[in-house]
Design goal:
The protein is of the alpha/beta class. 36% of the residues lie in helices and 18% in strands.
């Protein structure tokens, strides 16, 4: 495993993290604690130290799996990143909650679920600009940081071209940008990444496998069940993406190289990107993801 400095946080994170949206049950299967433990144990074995989760991956469900795991391990082995701003009702149904008093409650609920007294990175979760621009929100978050409940603040931008929130990072004391970035979606390269580099912001690339389309497992025409979040993607857009993936596989992926590993390494070769946070359904996928570090040279 390789490690990089996460911008001005000065935390050294593994270039491969573990995304845990799947633990919330919106990717076609439900998880048990033992299954979550096996994924996280494999990550630790391979040198991964970054876990990304959110309050709305289930109703703090993903956080609860992580918390139960961490409670039986060494908390200091892990950098835990979670998010705020949404209340989960049921699969694919959420309400935005960005009022300062609601965020205080969300953080306390996240800390309880994670069975820890602090989070390493607390991220504004895909909210609109008018909510982001609420000074009271960031004043409240700064107080929570001073109280020791948060080590660092970050912003998970909803649009991968949200220059407004990225450029305002220094003003609100946000040290990390999380953004959708992958071989099929290179928009951040144009404006967001240059802003991150100017401000010395860490960058977490989410959806680095384009919702699994860049795994190489799916052919054009593939369909997904109603319990899978990809079922809600536009069918024509999905077809176009999978056709593009076929072309990429034939023309860009070296012979004998796993496409998923290649796609993660492709993200990490951009100088602005600190770490990628792919989801993984089982320990075998954690192993495949980790191999991307070997392709960096």
């Amino acid at each position: 495993m390789k490690y990089r400095r996460l911008g001005k946080t000065e935390m050294n994170v593994s270039v491969i993290g573990i995304g845990t949206w799947q633990f919330g049950g919106e990717w076609g299967r439900q998880y048990s604690q033992d299954e979550a433990d096996a994924i996280l144990d494999k990550g630790r074995e391979l040198g991964i130290n970054l876990i990304d989760t959110a309050e709305c991956y289930g109703d703090h469900l993903s956080e609860s799996f992580i918390g139960s795991y961490i409670a039986r391990r060494n908390r200091e082995d892990w950098i835990i990143a979670t998010k705020f701003g949404h209340h989960f009702h049921e699969n694919f149904s959420r309400t935005a909650l960005f009022a300062p008093q609601d965020v205080v409650k969300q953080l306390d609920a996240s800390l309880k679920a994670l069975k820890t007294d602090y989070v390493d990175l607390y991220q504004f979760h895909s909210g609109p600009d008018q909510v982001f621009d609420n000074d009271d929100l960031w004043t409240t978050l700064d107080k929570l940081k001073q109280a020791g409940k948060i080590r660092h603040l970050g912003t998970s931008i909803g649009s991968n071209d949200n220059l407004h929130q990225t450029d305002a990072s220094a003003k609100v004391n946000s040290s990390v940008i999380q953004v959708v970035y992958n071989r099929l979606d290179r928009v951040p390269e144009e404006r967001v990444f240059p802003s991150c580099e100017r401000q010395d912001l860490g960058v977490l690339a989410r959806v680095p496998l384009a919702s699994g389309y860049l795994s190489g497992k799916y052919k054009p025409g593939a369909t997904f069940g109603s319990t899978d979040v990809r079922h809600h993607h536009d069918a024509q857009a999905t077809l176009r993406k999978l056709e593009e993936v076929e072309q990429i596989k034939q023309t860009e992926v070296p012979p004998g190289v796993d496409m998923a590993s290649w796609a993660l390494a492709w993200c990490l070769k951009h100088p602005a990107v600190t770490s990628v946070i792919p989801g993984c359904k089982d320990p075998e996928q954690v192993t495949a993801n980790a191999k991307a570090a070997e392709l960096l040279g």
